[in-house]
Protein 1
Amino acid sequence: MPTTTLLGGSGATRSHKNPAAGGAVRHMRWTQKINDCMPMELKFYFPDLPSGPLDAYRKKATFNWRLMKLAYDNLTTIKLKHDIYSFMEKHPLFQYSDTSLSLDEERHITVKRMYALFNANFVPFEKIVEEPRILQADTEAMFMYDSSLAVKLSLTFRMFANTIQGSGKPHHYHFVEDVQNGKIGGSFALTEVSHGSNAKGMRTTATYVPEKKQFVIHSADFEAAKFWVGNMGKCATHAIVYAMLISKGKNHGLHAFVVPLRDTKTLKPFPGVIVGDIGEKVGLNGIDNGFVMFNNYHIPKENALDKLGGVDDNGDYQTAYRDPNKRFGASLGILSGGRVNIAGISTNYLQKAIVIAVRYSAVRKQFGAQNAVEETPVLEYQQQQIRLLPYLAATYAFRIFCSWFSAVHINMTIDKYAGKEGDAALGMELHALSSSAKPMCSWVVRDGIQNCREACGGHGYLKASGLGDLRNDNDANCTYEGENSLLLQQASNYLLTAWGRRHKLSDDDTPLGSLKFLLNADELLKTTCPWKSQEQLVDPYNLTQMYKWLTAYVLKMTYEKVSKLKQEGKDNLQAKNESQSYNAVTLSIVYGENYILNHFYNTAKNFEDVSCRRVLLKLVSLFGAFLLEKHMATLYIGGYFTLDQGFHLREGILRLCSEITPEAVALADTLAPPDFCMKSVLGLSDGEVYKHIQNKVMTYPGALSRPHWWKDVVYWQSYVDSKL
């Protein structure tokens, strides 16, 4: 078997148990132990930041911004990112253009950069096994530079190889070797023009012909064309195509096939393959998303990825799964890492956006107290704080959670490739939690980036601010790998099943601890919130307990509504459909919020450095209180909140924002990529915003020149009259 190429995130341990959610104690600390030489090593990778307008805020910070990085990184991942950044900064291919590129130019330069990084091979498999977090570090570094580059590299090499290794047999591994050697480029074709979410309704067919030992791949019409396929538009030579396997007149459901699309020497499509580019998108235009149609296109039988089921030479179907639904679920379960990764990808976008907005808000001054010598930085205004600082807290919460979550997935994948028997309960819980975390993170990030853009005022609307591109690129996270609202149903279905057996749950049923909120749920739901004061209502531990009640309450209400609808004669589909809004969707979001908040809290309280720990716990409070406030109506409807508790919660949020403001720039410094990758006139580490705007405006090609169409301004009447 060739070297495994994993698509995933980061991690720190091979254990799946998580004390942050109440799991077993067999869990290594996520923060690296701080030793005496650590500060010096960190200073090597992160030299002193340039002096300038941000100095005043940096001097207010009460913690070491370099040590704070160890909340989600370690020296191994820090070194890897440093090496990648240094490689890109010195390489001529990675110099940013001063002007916007055409669609073709953007696609072209992304391909060249992809192969440069592919050739450098910063994350060989043996290093991933030693330290799973390096894969997340590699992904983060690429996303901080250019998101199209990161996605394209993952699609071309990692996802293609992973799918073959998960669904194929040894005779398929030559495809993996070829992609790892750069001989071929892969893509993943599931979605069709008229079908995306309903995978069982796909219309591309693969009909087996026993006489030739071949499959005939066919698209009935354009609606059956595979669509949105990343890397297929211009570059992919091969695709993993999902099609309905038909043999001896029987449809055996959706199966995966390795399908050659283009000649590896000429990139011309093979006869029977119509493949093309779908054109410009809202964002991520460095990726050539494409479509493909097949006209009775023949492929060898050996190209069927039949590890989970397929036909023998005679066309008789063979599988270890008696239930076709279980085989189908196992097939798609191999790809569950996509949702895990998107949660981390979304975080990378917010990570960059919040740095830009916080740094700019610390420099931008407007108004001020009467008779004041200077105007006031806009970061000091309450409305600016509440628009930005909860999302700063969310960035830390997501960054810490996604590092751990990706590690769980990577380690589970490594175990699977090593032939170890899988943990069914772990697989189901990972599926549910990823189906919640992906929508939750991408929606919070969507709102966070928009707030960053607006909080930067008019300058935030400049393309040179970088915020518009971050917003557009992240937007895809809300719909691919499952549109968020639909994806949340997979989490709610898991939870509804859990409610009925809540009295029998054990640690083995919830290896990740995400169902621990159900312990004594019936007794818990009889209680009301015991905390009355502002300080108590934003205490980080108290917030985890409030979320425990909230999650149990929304699950109980959803379960009861579904049951009532079924009692009224509604079938399962109708009952589920009529219990989504205000119930199942909210349930899945709250489930993810509860888990991530608990994970954040346990990481923060165990952080070794006292000063960093104190600031992290304030971020936990702000993150939890900000999210909980959005469920205020439910807290009152359920009788958990009474009188003025909601008022005190809101006042606590404002107080936390004020307390975190002096730390905000240093917290942004911790999250920030090198200036080389920032690609923003508002967010560079020197804080010289206006100098960078001036330089960008004055040097922009054509900014100071007369347009070649100047006569159409001066003599406009001549061409207007000529059209009468």
Protein 2
Amino acid sequence: MLNVLIVDDIAENLYFLDVLLRGNGFGVLAAANGAEALESARKSPPDLIISDILMPVMDGYALCREWRADERLRQIPFIFYTATFIEKKDEELALGLGADRFVIKPQEPDDLMVIIREVLAGNRSGAESRTEAAHPEEGELLREYNEALFRKLEKKMFDLEQANRELEQKMLDQRHLEEQLRQVQKMEAIGRFSTGIAHDFNNILTVIFGFGSVMKLKMAAKDPMHENIDHILAAADRAANLTRSLLTFSRKQEMKLQLLSLNSCIRNVEKFLRRIIGEDIKLITSQRVEEILIYADGGHVEQVLMNLAANARDAMPDGGILSIGTDIVVVDDEFIRMHGYGKPGRYALLTFADNGTGMNENTRQRIFEPFFTTKETDKGTGLGLSIIYGIVEQHNGHISVYSEPGQGTTFKILLPLMSGEFAADGAGIGQLPLEHGDETILVVDDEAPIRQYLESFLTTLGYKVLLAQDGREAVQLFRDKGAEVDLVLMDVIMPYKNGREAAREIKELQKDIKIVFTSGYPHDLIHERNLLDDDAQILMKPLTPTDLARKLRAAFDGCQS
């Protein structure tokens, strides 16, 4: 067996030559640089040396020079196998030092073996008798072996490429999961933020609702300031709806469902929608003549309309036409088959169409994703359409969108149609008679403006009022004047003693005392912290006069409201 010394500082190159030579019946010795090669060859001279040029310690040129200067090694054939080839003089230098061949990497395995055998045959007498290449039948076997080896290498390369593709897919999946995690974290952050602002914001709105309503109650019927007060109360109502929409979107607030007229909802906000879109966009409304009744949260329906209007305005920077229409449609099996969604039944259809810039298919498929926006960083949050999607889903409805670049956008929203007589609920102050009384109410709240509003409003209705600023003071006041008190109206979260703690101590003093709790925090936080008993009566802030008067009267009369 002929032994070949291979010299290269790259492990992969050594491995390739080792596999190739051993597969062709050669023995193999290896060295990482010229110095190691000389030391190895002087101990056990090989039959051939194959060397790289650029290596540490001693490069290939120095090795060849030392090789030819050594009397024991000078007759052993020397092949340069290198990727170093800038000019013809590189090869001339190598051959001038005594190298037998100058071969450029890479070479096909069969071609390299031909070169090796040629060098051995031309430089060693009798080599033919000791190498398989001298026998044609063995040469054919070696060619077959080389072909099989090459196929194995190709298979390994294919497997490596496949593994790389799988790794890339896993990395994409990992990035997708990381993005989903970021979205979840953002949603959790919105939930925490919503909960944090809800309490303070609802307290502020309670004061606006309260004093605005008290002013209106005390005005003469023909006072010209009535309209201004109505605007203030309407704006406060929209602000309360915005807060509830944000809390509902983050699953922090239950919906306030009631029987509504879809046409009336549009008429109620039509003036406000015109302000949102601006004077350069024409608003056209087309409503079905007959009443369209839905069971929905009125504030959420208005939120859908306002968000879609704002979206349409941004899609028509140079002006255009916005059309809002209502109709009744029947969803049957054929409709579900064509559109891929819905349940059989009769639905209210809300159509919202603009002739703006439109969007491509990729954008259309992503518009309902939270935080996805095509606007500049400081121009949009990416929450408007996802809030709309969440609201529609929570109402057991469906929303679809059609759009093409330059052809505008059309949203279609289906909401389950209700039957029955329409009764407006939640009419404002002055639209429904406020229920009066002459009982004594202990009002407990840590916000001074809310205490002032409640005292002013409740005394206007005929009630007598006692005030306490926290749970501890409420208990002490009840000890002193409990015999006079008919009902306690108490905030849930307060300093010193919270509402539940104070209520328990008050009930120890008078077991059958009526207690109505109030809170600006969302329902889920109250339940999570176990701040109230399951049978407790609660009125959520903002405390509008109509809701407050009805709730108190129901509590006095022994009814649940």
